[in-house]
Amino acid sequence: MSRLMLGRTLERICKAVLLLCLVHFLIMMILYFDVYSQRFDIFSRFNNGRGANNSRGAHHYYYNFSSGRPNTTFASYLATADHLLPSTKPEANHTPPTPKPLPPCPEVPLGLVGRLLIEFSSQITLERVQRENPNVTEGGKYTPPDCRPKQKVAIIIPFRHRDNHLKYWLHYLHPVLRRQKIDYGIYIINQLGEDTFNRAKLLNVGYTEAIKDAEYNCFIFSDVDLIPMDDRNLYHCYDQPRHFAIAMDKFGFRLPYAGYFGGVSGLSKKQFLKINGFPNEYWGWGGEDDDIYNRITLNGMKVSRPDVRIGRYRMIKHERDKHNEPNPQRFSKIQNTKNTMRKDGISSLMYRVVSIKKYPLYTNISVEIGKPPPRPLKG
Ligand SMILES: *[C@@H]1O[C@H](CO)[C@@H](O)[C@H](O)[C@H]1NC(C)=O
Ligand SMILES: *[C@@H]1O[C@H](CO)[C@@H](O)[C@H](O)[C@H]1NC(C)=O
Ligand SMILES: *[C@@H]1O[C@H](CO)[C@@H](O)[C@H](O)[C@H]1NC(C)=O
Ligand SMILES: *[C@@H]1O[C@H](CO)[C@@H](O)[C@H](O)[C@H]1NC(C)=O
Ligand SMILES: *[C@@H]1O[C@H](CO)[C@@H](O)[C@H](O)[C@H]1NC(C)=O
């Protein structure tokens, strides 16, 4: 009787063991085939119902086994998997897969077209420019998707009442900058009120506000009415301060004089700080660019320029702006750069930001920069 009982018990145990083996085998098979699937899915399966985010798209352990049959054994697979257990690296559950590091952008970008046809007769709307530049992000920013640029460029435009010019500028420049693989942001520095315009002070404001917004290391200062006619004129910074607009149509596509530094120029952060930024005391039209040129040469740098066939620009024709009359003091002031540049510059800049608005194609920074000091009495 007891022998029979023992026999039956043994039989049951054997059956149980067999069943266990079968279940074990099945699990092994499932795990084994999992190795061949593209996504490493085990942990999510085990995490079910624990509140972990296990939607398929959220998986971050990625193995590329598509290059032929895997040489990985099941044992090595588990060994690798051990390091990735969520318990040991809980934060890994939410970090995206580390993207492949992009290659550095080439010195001379591919895809430039050279000479451009620039005209100002067709009507441009901001909606159209926006449609044509879908990858420009809020505030007028862009980063090349396929390479890593060395520089981060803030493009600064002194501005007042030139909305129509701005449309042309954005229409032409966004595509050029994109082809040039520039990592950039566009800043319009809008002088509020109707006091005398002060271009160089607005540029100082642009520098100061741009570095608050992002880690720029290159600054390009452009008038709103100047459009480059050749996309090989690369909008980034160089070993020396750069003058871009060397051949404008209004000057017969020639440099008007050797020390000309007007229109479009670019300085690295280091170069800009070395000259204490730009002067704040040039009210009205003219002179400030010559003062900047003097600052550059007095600080032992020299201006770099593109080839005259490439540095060509079209200027949008316009009436002279109101409240930007030629500055009568400009000739005497530029004689004094050496004495004034240490006290007058980015170190002495004072202004008040009234609003910062980020539009799809540019950032609009409106500022109060004061007005010129009263004219000294004659005599
Ligand atoms: C899970 O991840 C998906 C995709 O990343 C996300 O849309 C969803 O909100 C997440 N759910 C939870 C509960 O975290
Ligand atoms: C997987 O590897 C193969 C061969 O190395 C490669 O061609 C393929 O692009 C890779 N797949 C992915 C998605 O990275
Ligand atoms: C798998 O193959 C690669 C080269 O194809 C080799 O470097 C690696 O050591 C192999 N791994 C195993 C576990 O055999
Ligand atoms: C915008 O970016 C996407 C993704 O990087 C790319 O496929 C597309 O061609 C870009 N569009 C333009 C107009 O550059
Ligand atoms: C910039 O903002 C100011 C202040 O709101 C506004 O008056 C001006 O029209 C704006 N200019 C541009 C070009 O967006």
TrEMBL record:
InterPro entries (UniProt xref) = Galactosyl_T, Galactosyl_T_C, Galactosyl_T_N, Nucleotide-diphossugar_trans
Q: Name one GO biological process term.
A: carbohydrate metabolic process
Q: Quote the catalytic activity from the record.
A: N-acetyl-D-glucosamine + UDP-alpha-D-galactose = beta-D-galactosyl-(1->4)-N-acetyl-D-glucosamine + UDP + H(+)
EC number assigned by the record: 2.4.1.-
Occurrences of domain Galactosyltransferase N-terminal (ranges): 105-237
MF GO annotations: galactosyltransferase activity; metal ion binding; N-acetyllactosamine synthase activity
Instruction: Tell me yes or no: is Plastid among this UniProt entry's keywords.
Output: no
Galactosyltransferase C-terminal domain location? 242-319
Q: Which Pfam families match?
A: Glyco_transf_7C, Glyco_transf_7N
Q: Where in the cell is it found?
A: Golgi apparatus membrane
Chief location: Golgi
Q: Name one GO cellular component term.
A: Golgi membrane
Membrane topology per the entry is:
Single-pass type II membrane protein
The record, for CDD domains, names: b4GalT (cd00899)
Q: Which UniProt keywords apply?
A: Disulfide bond, Glycoprotein, Glycosyltransferase, Golgi apparatus, Manganese, Membrane, Metal-binding, Signal-anchor, Transferase, Transmembrane, Transmembrane helix
Q: So where does this one cross the membrane?
A: 12-33
Q: In which pathway does it act?
A: Protein modification; protein glycosylation
Identify the Gene3D superfamilies for this entry: Spore Coat Polysaccharide Biosynthesis Protein SpsA, Chain A
Q: Which cofactors is this protein said to need?
A: Mn(2+)
| Reported function | Responsible for the synthesis of complex-type N-linked oligosaccharides in many glycoproteins as well as the carbohydrate moieties of glycolipids.
Q: Give the similarity note.
A: Belongs to the glycosyltransferase 7 family.
Q: What is this protein called?
A: Beta-1,4-galactosyltransferase
